[in-house]
Design brief:
The complex is a heterodimer of chains A (314) and B (328).
Chain A (H helix, E strand, L loop, with lengths): L3 E12 L2 E7 L2 E3 L3 E5 L6 H8 L7 E6 L8 H7 E4 L11 H11 L4 H14 L15 H13 L5 E5 L7 H16 L3 E6 L2 H7 L2 E6 L2 E6 L1 H9 L3 E8 L2 H10 L3 E8 L2 E6 L4 H10 L3 E9 L2 H15 L1
Helix pairs in contact in A: 3-4, 4-5, 8-11, 9-10
Chain B lengths: L1 H7 L13 H14 L1 H26 L8 H7 L8 H17 L4 H5 L3 H5 L5 H35 L5 H31 L3 H30 L7 H15 L3 H13 L25 H32 L5
Helix pairs in contact in B: 2-8, 3-4, 3-5, 3-8, 5-8, 5-9, 5-10, 8-9, 9-10, 9-12, 9-13, 10-11, 12-13
The chains are: A alpha/beta (314), B mainly alpha (328).
């Protein structure tokens, strides 16, 4: 048994002369949450469609759960749940009827299907509206029904395209909580998004897409180190001799840059979390420590910084 | 892993049956059609048509009871001014009903954003497309059969004469041909629903084709025949050739094929659908009906043509759908 549930090798998709996905090498481990990031049109959805066998790759190879999606699509699709962006349902049918159709397409027998439908609807908190027409549902409810729809086949892996698109902040927060509970159950999750803050909150690793290529890949702190040259930003508020405190902080191992922001506020860009050492340094320099905060790296910033560099590079 | 990939790529064929999940799609489509408001409207329309034309026909037939061997068949073909006969109405209504059922079948899935979710289930596109076609075809069959039974019942009650076995057989074949005729328009409207993303455009395109064959094709065929086979010297062969060409051209239209086919089925006295020269009639007993097998032989090319057109249109739609990118 292989640890990798998704593996692609030089995966390429061309539409005419336009290259949507360019020699992509992507690997996703069993049980991890992987985020595909990038602006619209960067090739995220095309990649997902190729993983499911819904679009034929122009060249290169794909393996999903050890299977080839373009030759064994039925096996792949019966083990992989997929939720497209702004997932749609038949408005004139109830939530339950929509799921019955999915269950039938998956070849579940009747009794099993009803049991599972009750299970998944309860799971996403829609059991009370099971017999309401989907036309009356809010975007957030449809999105949760989308998750129920995926879980119906008891997938080993789920793929979600822009799952939080169109949700209000509260809806998005609840949705991310749902994703976390799925991860705890050992389901591998691949999700794409351009809402970086949310991806950062749930993903173990991320891949940054730009014009069909995955230009960066790794955990968020790794990317922070690589792109910004730092992984942590520490805020210190201290009273005392500014120059003494500042030079003391600069001597702390791991500190990349120390800035005096405003009177008694200091900002340290650091390679690792050096709060204890920084606190000690402030004390030794005769300062009074008033506040000490760490800000982990922000994916938004990494993203913006990276694309700024790319623009300049061109 | 690399070795595994290399081994597996040697196997090029797709796994499993292309029809996995077909019956789930058929059942869903039929349930949708039969419960939709659109279908209610169509049902009312067709029931009113049947009731009106059959009532008219009965008024007409009562006066001639006992003079005709095929009284029951006359129910379908007799017209009472100002209404046309039931078969005339069917030639008009069947395409409309078929188009109304499926003009938004594929593009509707796109606009509701359900297509990619459905295709992410373990089925092939083949099953979805054929399932949608069969679902609509079975719906048509169900509705037409109900109407047919209704007419037979009305006939029994109104005429008070039971139909002969040949009449039952002929009118049943009429039902079958009508369902297949619906199939052509289903395949056409479905193809348009794949080509056009807007359901309204697809509906208009289908209606345009329908109108073209209903109204304009006969006129165009006449003009074409006159241009291609002009009458130069006034020989009778020239007239015959021109008329034959015109007939051949009009038969490219499914409406003509259907009209001729049901005419031969419901009026056993019809001995030929083309031209007969007086010499060919030598020895024929005029006005005597053909047996069913001979009538069938007469319309066999028509039936083949109707079926072939359906298959061609479906194949076209199938090819387009297989190649379509499903991302919305």
């Amino acid at each position: 048994m292989n640890d990798w549930v998704i593996e692609t090798k030089d995966l390429t998709k061309k539409y005419g002369t336009f290259t949507a996905v360019d020699a992509l090498n992507l690997s996703v481990k069993h049980g991890e949450v992987f985020g595909l990031l990038g602006p619209n049109g960067a090739g995220k959805t095309t990649t997902i469609l190729m993983l499911l066998g819904l679009t034929e790759p122009t060249s290169g190879e794909v393996r999903v759960l050890g299977l080839d999606p373009s030759r064994q699509p039925l096996s792949v699709k019966s083990h992989v749940g997929y939720m497209p962006d702004l997932v749609g349902f038949y408005d004139e049918l109830t939530a339950e009827e929509n799921l019955i159709y999915t269950a039938k397409l998956n070849g579940l027998d009747r009794r099993d299907a009803y049991k599972r439908i009750d299970e998944v609807l309860e799971r996403v908190g829609l059991q009370d509206v099971a017999d309401h027409n989907v036309g009356t549902f809010s975007r957030g409810m449809k999105q949760r029904l989308g998750v129920a729809d995926m879980l119906l086949k008891r997938p080993q892996m789920i793929i979600m395209d822009e799952p939080t698109q169109g949700l209000d902040p509260e809806g998005a927060r609840e949705f991310l909580q749902l994703i976390r509970t799925l991860k705890e159950e050992g389901i591998t999750i691949l999700l794409s998004s351009h809402l970086l803050f949310q991806v950062q909150a749930v993903c173990d690793r991320v891949g940054l897409f730009h014009r069909g290529k995955m230009v960066l890949e790794g955990t968020v702190p790794e990317l922070g180190r690589r792109v910004l040259g730092r992984a942590y930003r520490i805020h210190i508020e201290a009273e005392g001799d500014q120059n003494a405190i500042r030079s003391a902080l600069q001597k702390v191992p791991g500190a990349v840059q120390v800035e005096l922001a405003d009177g008694r506020l200091y900002r340290i860009e650091a390679e690792h979390d050096l709060r204890p050492a920084a606190a000690e340094a402030v004390m030794n320099a005769g300062g009074k420590l008033l506040r000490l905060d760490v800000e982990t790296q922000n994916l938004d910033e990494i993203y913006a910084h990276y694309f700024k560099e790319v623009e300049h590079g061109n | 892993m690399a070795i595994e990939i290399a081994q597996a790529t040697g196997k090029r064929e797709r796994e499993g049956s292309p029809w996995t999940g077909l019956w789930a799609v058929v059942a869903k489509e039929m349930a949708d059609h039969l419960t939709s408001a659109r279908m209610r409207v169509l049902e009312i329309l067709i029931v009113l048509t049947a009731a009106g034309t059959i009532y008219g026909a009965m008024q007409n037939i009562r006066s001639t009871i006992g003079q005709d061997r095929f009284l029951f068949l006359k129910l379908f073909t007799t017209a009472q001014e100002p209404l046309p006969a039931f078969v005339g109405f069917m030639g008009l209504l069947v395409p409309l009903i078929a188009i109304a059922l499926v003009f938004d079948t594929i593009n509707g899935e796109f606009s509701r954003r359900t297509l990619s979710r459905i295709l992410a289930q373990p089925i092939y596109r083949d099953a979805l497309l054929l399932g949608k076609f069969l679902g609509a075809l079975f719906t048509l069959a169900l509705v037409f059969t109900a109407i047919w039974l209704l007419i037979m019942g009305l006939g029994l009650w109104g005429l008070g004469v039971p139909p002969s076995s040949e009449e039952v057989a002929r009118s049943f074949l009429f039902l079958l041909v009508t369902i297949f005729y619906g199939g052509i328009w289903l395949a056409l409207a479905m193809t348009f629903s794949i080509i056009f993303r807007q359901p309204a455009t697809a509906a208009l395109a289908s209606l345009a084709v329908w109108l073209f064959f209903m109204v304009f094709w006969d006129i165009i065929a006449g003009v074409l025949a006159q241009t291609l086979m002009p009458i130069r010297f006034g020989f009778s062969e020239e007239y015959l050739k021109q008329a034959q060409l015109e007939l051949g051209l009009t038969r490219l239209s499914p409406t003509t094929l259907y009209a001729e086919a049901i005419l031969a089925l419901l009026q056993p006295s019809i001995r030929s659908l083309g031209f007969i020269l007086p010499t060919q009639l030598q020895g024929a007993i005029l006005g005597s009906p053909l047996p069913l097998s001979q009538s069938l032989l007469l319309i066999w090319p028509h039936l083949t043509g109707l079926l072939a057109a359906t298959l061609l249109l479906f194949a076209l739609g199938y090819t387009l759908f297989q190649r379509q990118e499903i991302r919305a």
